[in-house]
């Protein structure tokens, strides 16, 4: 029997059909739009040197910043722990934004609840909402821990989370045994990495304090030889798998302090659970016995590392994303120094294979001018990768970077002749980047999906790296760190370059072999 073909039109074709064309034309009668000539003139002016100067002179307007809100990061941190329910004290709309943002990147559901504050809560405070919300959430979803963060509304009116949670226990809405870490995460300051750090520190400190354990680095039966590992605000579930592979090669025990890979890469079995994987709650206080803590994102977890180093009196090593040969070498050296174990031969062999691949592709990458956008730790890793491969970073924009980050990147650039032409911009946004791409062209742009509009206006190919990636599928499943991550990134970049060469070729120079 012949089956009817299911046609699912993309919006490119759907909105080109007659009903939508007529609808757009009809709307013009009410919108009083600019003429096509005026639009063309404004677009041309936005690409001029005069406009670029005005763009960089603005101080009271932000256009498309490359960062998200603090509670989004807090939500991700909460999902890194076993049977933990993220609870956002604020409006439903804010919570929906955080959930949809993460779901669009990972293509997975994002479980979280809200205290559903409205106008009444904004005037009279949100204590009743929070207490009722905690009681209902625990009854419905039966979490082992609830992690509470805040939105702008709760922060502006000054809601006291500690007091509200204490009142919820006194009223019997939640039990004394239920851990409820909380973090103040106002969206009007910081960014998603600030919120991640605040929540991670709160979870670790809450579970440690409640346990009664006394920190003693390098001691404890079955725990003293372990290493703690923090990946931070990690948009690549594949990076957790890569780190597991590396630690398995070292044949040493470890504990991830925050592992959200299970929640954001769960199987489709026909049954859905609210909780997948995550660091076991009982393992968190025992992490105070470990040899030390290694973080792969030092700028994203500053407060957490300070807490571990101070309260646990533990050796901490903060790296930035180990992308490429040099940075991965540094990662393996750090693990070796913390554990006293030699770098495994299988990782050395893997390194050799990646060096071979880099040698194969080097002629097509050498001297390529690159623009980069991302979070601080990711950008440091990407800059190092560019210098390793002979590519030349030119424009480096970090909306949530600080002066310490800028100084570190500038020192890294100064260490290589390939970094001589680069400028680092902190606190700038993607509209600034658009002016840079148009005024000082590059060969490649590297960043999240939000960079696609500026890259298209400038006619520059976009390599999608970082968070969020909405318009491509499954990239988060492939590691970006380690030697395998270096190979993955190399493959993506060099094949983008080769694709461009094919598109530019005509006639006899449309080569079969590259």
TrEMBL record:
InterPro entries: ChlB/BchB/BchZ, Nase/OxRdtase_comp1, Nase_comp1_CS, Nase_Mo-Fe_CF_bsu, Nase_Mo-Fe_CF_bsu_N. Tetramer of two alpha and two beta chains. Forms complex with the iron protein (nitrogenase component 2). Residues 8-55 form the Nitrogenase molybdenum-iron protein beta chain N-terminal domain. Its EC number is 1.18.6.1. This molybdenum-iron protein is part of the nitrogenase complex that catalyzes the key enzymatic reactions in nitrogen fixation. One of its GO terms (cellular component) is molybdenum-iron nitrogenase complex. The gene is nifK. It catalyses: N2 + 8 reduced [2Fe-2S]-[ferredoxin] + 16 ATP + 16 H2O = H2 + 8 oxidized [2Fe-2S]-[ferredoxin] + 2 NH4(+) + 16 ADP + 16 phosphate + 6 H(+). This is Nitrogenase molybdenum-iron protein beta chain. Belongs to the NifD/NifK/NifE/NifN family. Its cofactor is [8Fe-7S] cluster.
């Amino acid at each position: 029997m012949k089956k009817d073909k299911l046609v699912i039109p993309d919006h490119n074709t759907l909105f080109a059909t007659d009903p939508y064309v007529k609808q757009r034309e009809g709307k013009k009668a009410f919108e009083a739009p600019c003429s096509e000539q005026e639009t063309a003139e404004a677009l041309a002016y936005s690409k001029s040197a005069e406009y670029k100067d005005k763009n960089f002179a603005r101080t009271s307007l932000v256009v498309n910043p490359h960062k998200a809100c603090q509670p989004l990061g807090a939500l991700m941190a909460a999902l890194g722990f076993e049977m933990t329910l993220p609870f956002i004290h604020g409006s439903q709309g804010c919570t929906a934004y955080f959930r949809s943002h993460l779901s669009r990147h990972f293509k997975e559901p994002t479980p979280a609840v809200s205290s559903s504050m409205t106008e009444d809560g904004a005037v009279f405070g949100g204590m009743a909402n929070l207490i009722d919300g905690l009681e209902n959430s625990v009854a419905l979803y039966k979490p082992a821990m609830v992690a509470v963060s805040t939105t702008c509304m709760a922060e502006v009116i000054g809601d006291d989370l500690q007091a509200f949670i204490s009142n919820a226990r006194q009223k019997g809405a939640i039990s004394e045994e239920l851990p409820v870490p909380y973090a103040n995460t106002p969206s009007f300051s910081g960014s998603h990495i600030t919120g991640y750090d605040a929540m991670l520190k709160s979870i670790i400190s809450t579970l440690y304090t409640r346990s009664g354990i006394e920190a003693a680095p390098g001691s404890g039966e079955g725990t003293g030889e372990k290493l703690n590992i923090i990946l931070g605000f990690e948009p690549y579930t594949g990076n957790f798998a890569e780190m597991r592979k590396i630690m398995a090669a070292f044949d040493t025990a470890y504990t991830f302090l925050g592992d959200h890979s299970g929640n954001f890469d769960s199987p489709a079995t026909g049954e859905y659970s609210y909780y997948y994987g995550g660091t076991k709650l009982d393992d968190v206080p025992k992490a105070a016995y470990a040899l030390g803590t290694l973080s792969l994102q030092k700028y994203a977890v500053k407060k957490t590392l300070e807490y571990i180093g101070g309260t646990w009196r533990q050796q901490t090593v903060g790296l930035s994303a180990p992308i490429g040969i040099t940075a991965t070498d540094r990662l393996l050296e750090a693990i070796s120094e913390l554990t006293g174990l030699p770098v495994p031969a299988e990782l050395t062999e893997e390194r050799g294979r990646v060096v071979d691949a880099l040698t194969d592709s080097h002629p097509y990458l050498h001297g390529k001018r690159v623009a980069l956008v991302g979070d601080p730790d990711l950008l440091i890793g990407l800059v190092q990768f560019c210098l390793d491969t002979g590519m030349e970073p030119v424009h480096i924009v970090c909306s949530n970077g600080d002066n310490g980050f800028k100084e570190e990147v500038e020192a890294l650039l100064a260490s290589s002749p390939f970094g001589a032409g680069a400028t680092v911009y902190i606190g700038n946004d993607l509209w600034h980047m658009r002016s840079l791409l148009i005024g000082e062209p590059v060969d490649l742009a590297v960043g999240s999906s939000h960079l696609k509009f500026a890259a298209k206006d400038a006619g520059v190919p976009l390599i999608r790296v970082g968070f969020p990636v909405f318009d491509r599928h499954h990239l988060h499943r492939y590691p970006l760190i380690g030697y395998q991550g270096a190979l993955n990134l190399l493959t993506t970049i060099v094949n983008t370059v080769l694709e461009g060469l094919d598109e530019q070729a005509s006639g006899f120079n449309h080569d079969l072999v590259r």
